[in-house]
């Protein structure tokens, strides 16, 4: 087995390789003067089971191109099987035609990854589970829910918890955590009048006096979660904490979250933390490296991955 790291999240790739007691495969993934991506694998990988770790996070297009060109290099080097390990799958929110004459970019990205040479994909908390069907190769979509539930049980023991989905689209994800914690579920009726702007219409459920745990897949501008936290506090919630799988944190998101009524936000390291995230007083990272490493080991040994969902 070989683990190849592209550049979007080397610390995570290193942690996955370390958990598997493997060195990262020697490779150069660099830029020409005009910023074209150039990839060179410095080890023989003929006949190997190769895992390429790359989140297609900001800058999404550069990171996607690195992944595609690395897959092409591996395919042309006669790897036996290539798995694209994409902890954060960018473009996932463009999973349907949102209006007339608009693309389904998530499908295009799935086609590109397959065409570039991936035999399978390993990812985490896809924005919409049905994106798996955009691929005609196997996709293992891991969940952060077990990791989050364990952390919540440790940190919030004895508190009167209520799990909250910040929008209708996130209900299945939030309900999975509520079921693990044996708590109630509330739902926020969110509207998006236009891209990048979210408004809370209603809180569905009685959050008065409860310690609320908001659960989401992505924090981008932070608008959804900050507005949700404000609405919960206005409705009498005692405290609001947040668990999010992918910390995109665009623009002034970290500052916005720092100023919001949020006790603590927990994100995974599917996307490498910026300095602003690292020094933030109310954002904490939980690593998914052991989960990814275990999935990689099981894929390589052709054993079941489904027990990792428990
Ligand atoms: C939307 O459906 C997603 O699950 C997230 O709630 C959304 O992407 C968060 O974006 P923002 O932080 O910009 O409100």
Automatic annotation (TrEMBL):
It is an enzyme of class 2 (transferase). It is found in: Cytoplasm. Gene3D superfamilies: 3.40.50.2020. D-ribose 5-phosphate binds at residues 192, 216, 220-224. The keyword Metal-binding applies. The active site is at residue 190. Belongs to the ribose-phosphate pyrophosphokinase family. Class I subfamily. Involved in the biosynthesis of the central metabolite phospho-alpha-D-ribosyl-1-pyrophosphate (PRPP) via the transfer of pyrophosphoryl group from ATP to 1-hydroxyl of ribose-5-phosphate (Rib-5-P). This is Ribose-phosphate pyrophosphokinase. It comes from Teichococcus oryzae. The gene is prs.
